[in-house]
Amino acid sequence: MELFSLIGEHEHEQVVFCYEPSCGYKGIIAIHDTTLGPALGGTRYWNYESDEAAFVDALRLSRGMTYKAAVAGLNLGGGKSVIIGDPKSPNREQIFRAHGRFVESLKGRYITAEDVGTSVADMDYVHMETEHVTGRGDTSGDPSPVTAYGVYRGIKAAAQAKYGSDDLNGVTVAVQGVGHVGYYLCQNLASEGAKLIVTDIDQDRVKAVVKEFGAQAVGLNDIYGVKANVYAPSALGATVNDETIPQLKVDIVAGAANNVLKEERHGDLLHEKGILYAPDYVINAGGLINVYGELQGWTAERAMRKAGEIYGTLLQIFQIAGDENMPTYLAADHLAERRIESIGKIQRTWV
Predict the structure, then answer these.
(1) What backbone torsions phi and psi does residue 284 show, to the nearest 5 degrees?
(2) Is 80 an annotated catalytic residue?
(3) What is the pLDDT of residues 319-334, one digit of tens each?
């Protein structure tokens, strides 16, 4: 694997490899672009199949954070951390304090937060070593409700674009993953009368959603072939791929997961099939909005209102995609790149 060719492919600024043998901590911090501001992105704790897989994931996720912040209109760059290991490890204080020391070494170029496999309590450990962490217990805490609300608003925007109405009463949504974000998403959807089909590796979570929101449960691999209006991937990424696309019986793909498309060409395939795709880093930006609001001293209500603006942003992207006959993921990229380029020009005049 050629490390620098991968780093240079999307013009990442910096990648830091971190190691603390006393507790088995192995981490990677990737900073993609700081044109708009300091790089912000969560810490993912996952049992990767290889160091290479962790490295590539950090690169992909950090780039996505740059575009997510740009499209959301936030003054942030994109970064991401991954910790390699068993997320059920009992050594959480040692691991996350070690991680916090490496975050501190970047002196504010990178700000971390909660992500897959990590919690508010973990961020409190990180905070023992650095101020450059958000989503702590003494601040806004869990960003999941704001993320879920943004996804809910995004699904409504997609319904408006596809059906001419954003009323979700009676609309069937297949939600893959009912963890923190998925649970709150189901709550929002059910409150409007949407019909839910759900799956998750954790059966207790599935049972809770079935009981509380009247959802229908299906097997892990059965979710791709159910007949529904919307497929809402809300767990790990790459679930839209060569194997799943032929199974999809939906009009819309819109969910909370990052990197929903396994490869960019899968966005092209959805476009060809007439399936409307809400680009993941646009629709799931609520969590980032929440932690940005924390940094800026916003109220919880203001962060929620800002997440609600995802509705209008997606309608703009759908309009661009329609006018230029391009897949929506490309339309979103163009919107993000335009903002980075325009603000970058302004900043250069200050130097």
Answers:
(1) -100, 20
(2) yes
(3) 999 999 999 999 999 9
